[in-house]
Amino acid sequence: MSDNDGADDMIMLMCASCGIAEVDEVKLKTCADCDLVKYCSDACQKDHKSQHKRACKKRAAELRDELLFKQPDSSHLGDCPICCLPMPLDLRKATFKLCCSKMMCKGCSHGNLMRELEERREPKCPFCRKPSVPPTDEESGKWIMKRIEANDPAAMTQWGRDQYAKEIIVAAELGYAEAHYRLSIFYHDVEKDGGKTKHHLEEAAIGGHPSARYTLGYHEGRNRRHDRAVKHLITAATQGDDDSINELMDEFRRGFVSKDDLAAALRAHQAAVDATKSPQREAAEELERWIAARRIKSTADMLRKSTIEKITSSRCASCGIAEVEADDITLKECATCDLVRYCSDACQKNHWPQHEEACKKRSTELRDELLFKQPESSHHGDCPICCLHMPLDVDKSTIMTCCSKIVCNGCAYADALRQVEGMLLHTCPFCREPTSDTNEEYTKEMMKRVEANDPVALCQEGGVQEEKGNYLRAFEYFTKAAELGDVEAHFELSHMYRDGHDVEKDEGKEMYHLELAAIGGHPGARYNLGIGEWNNGKTERAVKHWIIAATQGDDDSINELMAVFREEDGMVSKDDLAAALRAHQAAVDSAKSPQREAAETASKSAEEYLRNAAKSLQREAAEESQRRMKMKSV
């Protein structure tokens, strides 16, 4: 304990006004507004008020803020008393039972109702087991008044929420958060009392009311107290409040919320929303949607349309002949689209003038369906050793020339460490062949894989030739690898057609190879496609590309999305950005492991050692040079 702590403890044991110490007959009372000082009597407190007033107000404000900005354990609605899951914030997804003043989720209410219908039982409250529907309005009034007489704050709030009766004031005095929120609306809209409005909003927020906290954050932001606004909004968003997460997005756009804080709030918001979900609640929502969707087309109309389409597709689009197995008449689909079928090449040729426009339109649609389909993983796939997603950063993986397998640095480092500790022969972690020790052996193994037409080796050799400036040879290797399906080779070919290295510049071929690379899961290619589409004014397609690449964990794409959201109003919606941020973080996290982190740490340590060694050699060389200069001068 420090001397200052001891001095503070001594002060707290003495009256702040007269200095009398706390003994058997003298009891000191802490200041009611703060916890800084104690007094032996009301007279001493009154005498000391002028000296203590400023410090007391400051400390009282600090204590109030500590209480106000503390993250509530749950929302003011708490958990459903039946399923014990957090209650949804949307009150349309909850039911208030007059018999016992209990709020419960519609999932439990729906589940209970279905069970009673199946068993043909009398409908009862799922909680108190009383008849759930009162026979008359008068009876329902009696039920709720009975709960009010029992000082039930929920019943008081339910009764007084429309007319702001005295019962709602009593409910607020009993600490009911919803009552405080209703009173804040009353003082804001009717009485026009800003002080009382703020007081009740704060009490409701402390009680876990996310709407009250959102309102506080909204007004703090409009009053330019953005740090307090952001705190309120983050707290409410963490409870699952949609308005707060949307307002946070606006604050981020204005520059008052960092990217990390926004990402953390989005994850917490999604976790809070997911915590309120259950199969029973989804079934209840599905039932309500089914009841509300009675204006859709009848099943007969849909069936008739489907039958017509089926009949049309079973006939030649040119001559109309039907497909008959007994007569050996087989129709073939148009090779470019899936709209029509033909019995012969002659029919297809005759029908082409009529079909050309629709065919081209449909083929473009099919290409876009393929192009904008979310890949299951990046073009790197998974590490063949640990089966985790490969990191997008190529510096965090290693190619084994013996088998052309690319493994993550975590597995390569762990295997190398095992071999060093066990004094074993250095072998490939995948095929167990001895690893190459010299550049000659490395090149020999690589060329062996090239001769076997290994697409990965062909692409690697193309990169080697490109670094040497032998672009024509590199083009040949990349082309062969691309023909064998190597995605990276398509990406490299797009660069060659863009830059015109020993090949004629061709924007069409550049886009063609970029699209094939993107379809194969290459996030860098998809990012480039997005840039190209944006520059051509096709902003919607650009955003689609960046969202897909960001979902794969591409940093450039998520940064581009955030820049567009911040600078181009309406180009990227809040929901799309939030989903992209969550998916991006999930992709990044899926590529992490303790072994990979250990390998990265070891790599950084080795780099630091080499830098220090280089600096030491430079310093020694400089000192030696100075020593020689001095000897010459002597």
Automatic annotation (TrEMBL):
PROSITE patterns registered for this protein in UniProt:
ZF_MYND_1, ZF_MYND_2
Where is this chain compositionally biased, Basic and acidic residues type?
A: 594-610, 617-627
This protein's source sits in the domain of life called Eukaryota
Record's keyword terms, sorted: Metal-binding, Zinc, Zinc-finger
**According to the UniProt record, where is the region Disordered?**
588-634
| Family matches, as SMART domains | RING (SM00184), SEL1 (SM00671)
State what protein this is by name: MYND-type domain-containing protein
Organism, by scientific name, is: Skeletonema marinoi
